[in-house]
Design a protein that fits this description.
Largest interface: A-B, 11 and 11 residues
Largest sheet of chain B: none
Strand content of chain B: under 5%
CATH architecture of chain B: Orthogonal Bundle
Oligomer: heterodimer
Number of domains of chain A: 2
Structural class of chain A: alpha/beta
Strand content of chain A: 15-25%
CATH topology of the largest domain in chain A: Peroxisomal Thiolase, Chain A, domain 1
Distance between the termini of chain B: 6 Å
Number of helices of chain A: 14
CATH superfamily of the largest domain in chain A: Thiolase/Chalcone synthase
Order of helices and strands of chain B: HHH
Chain lengths: 414, 85
């Protein structure tokens, strides 16, 4: 008798993106071509551009909690509460030890450490002025821990460090834990507070990978011939995931079903992507889902608007999908919101989920001159595309140190 | 510095570290922790802000002296005066 893993479904979405603080607002801006990148002062570096979120932090937290906690914790709490509200679950009645919180992060602790070093610089670097909050703020589980504190959940709550693939990893890990029976309800996805550390800006600038453009909203332009780097953004998207039987039993609204996934590693370079391994990741995810390339209707690319990275992902997609997938459309969400790092995969999936209902593929915007090396069949550029069928979404998210992730979500059919 | 001014310094610090609290009716002779949400980390904040903002060191053995506004004033006022404040 073969093992049949439980079917896992998405029942709630909570998010904050640089261009929207709910799924409805985010989606509308993706369809309307509204980007959310703006000028921002960065310590030591001056005026740069970034994707900044403008959610109401006091909606679910007290001022004191915001003072003591971290931005990543605050984003997590906002997204978790919004997802719970959206799921319609009776959370008060739920056994809190059966709830898991799994939050993907690119990194955590840089913001808080930089803040403390800056603070003690005003006291001649005397460490007796170092905050007693430093350790709880910088432990790697901070965003998930703050979320469990706020929600009162007593099941597992931790972060998953997976560079810029982390958003997908949060969902994948939650699905696995639900299938193992470790928890009955999962809050999962990814968050990022990265814009509050100068180090990430300086690092990408030293790498010649930081985007510049006179119009901030046009700076993130994957696939455009003149793209020149990444727009760094903050954000978060958390989902409620449940086993299908549980979701059906409570009459939950179902956004989609986890169909398959793969996580693999390049084992080839610290920062340079590896299209061969990316293609392998996509193929394994398809196999895991029991699908062929032509079964995929939307591919949300990871492309970050770097000259080389975009070409290499297109190469990987071309290798898997070739010319024989007439119903497969390709788009990119970073062109609106920049690179939300640990939140990227989770946010970009959210932006595409409504396509199951409206059958519209949001475009990759800011492509004035398509780079010939990024040409792909059915690449949706600048204008939304109404299509005949959207039953599947394939979401790519890749990260430094060669971590690749592909998550496939399909329309729920009973 | 008078004891009343000293109490105001402490209240100003508390207003920053406990921004959700209404401090208008704080009783000076009652333990602060009995009147508001103030945990041990918040208490360390008071000690840190006295150090940062006013250059006043409070050794751990003396923490009980900061229990109420009155006891804060008794303990801290001479320290402010010694610093010429």
């Amino acid at each position: 008798m073969s093992f049949q893993p439980a079917r896992i479904v998405i029942t709630g979405v909570g998010l904050t993106a640089p261009n929207g603080n709910s799924l409805a607002e985010f989606r509308q801006n993706l369809l309307d071509g509204v980007a959310g990148v703006e000028p921002m002062d960065v310590r030591y570096m001056g005026r740069l551009i970034a994707g900044v979120c403008h959610y109401d932090a006091l909606k679910y937290q007290k001022k004191k909690e915001l003072r003591v906690g971290t931005r990543a914790g605050s984003i997590s709490i906002y997204c978790a509460r919004e997802a719970l509200a959206d799921s319609g679950v009776n959370f008060d009645a739920m056994p809190k030890d059966r709830v898991g919180v799994y939050i993907g992060c690119t990194e955590h602790g840089n913001v808080e450490t930089e803040n403390e070093i800056y603070a003690i610089s005003k006291f001649d670097y005397d460490t007796k002025y170092w905050s007693h909050y430093h350790n709880p703020r910088t432990v790697a589980n901070n965003p998930a821990g703050e979320t469990s504190l706020n929600l009162g959940t007593t099941g597992p709550a931790y972060t998953i460090g997976a560079a810029c693939a982390a958003g997908n990893l949060g969902l994948i890990h939650a699905a696995q834990m639900l299938r193992l029976g470790e928890v009955d309800f999962a809050i999962c996805g990814g968050v990022s507070e990265s814009i509050h550390t100068f180090g990430i800006f300086a690092g990408f600038k030293s790498q010649n990978a930081l985007a510049t453009h006179e119009d901030p909203k046009k700076a993130s332009r994957p696939f455009d011939r003149d793209r020149n780097g990444i727009v760094i953004s903050e954000g978060g998207a958390l989902y409620t995931l449940e086993r299908l039987d549980d979701a059906l039993a409570r009459g939950a609204k179902i956004y989609g079903e986890i169909a398959g996934y793969c996580v693999n590693s390049d084992a080839s370079d610290y920062v340079l992507p590896n299209p061969g391994r990316q293609a392998e990741c996509v193929r394994k995810a398809l196999k895991n889902a029991g699908m062929a390339p032509q079964d995929i209707h939307i591919i949300n690319t990871h492309a970050t608007s770097t000259p080389m990275g975009d070409i290499q992902e297109c190469e990987a997609i071309r290798a898997v999908f070739g010319e024989g997938c007439p119903d497969t459309y390709v788009n990119n969400t970073k062109s609106y919101i920049g690179h939300c790092m640990g939140a990227a995969g989770a946010l970009e999936l959210a932006g595409n989920l409504p396509s199951f209902n409206d059958l519209v593929v949001h475009p990759s915007i800011n492509v004035d001159n398509l780079d010939p090396k990024c040409e792909l069949p059915n690449l949706v550029l600048n204008q939304p595309r109404k299509v005949a069928k959207v039953d599947t979404i394939l979401n790519n998210s890749f990260g430094m140190l060669g971590i690749n992730s592909t998550l496939i979500v399909k329309r729920f059919v009973a | 510095m008078t004891k009343e001014e000293c109490k105001q310094v402490v209240l100003d610090i508390i207003a920053d570290i406990a921004p959700d609290e209404d401090l208008t009716n704080i009783k000076p002779d009652v333990r602060l922790r009995d009147q508001m949400e103030l945990d041990s980390m918040d208490f360390l904040d008071i000690v840190m802000e006295l150090r940062k903002q006013h250059g006043i060191e409070v050794p751990e053995a003396d923490y009980p002296q900061l229990a109420s506004l009155d006891s804060c004033a008794e303990y801290l006022t001479p320290k402010f005066i010694a610093l010429g404040k």
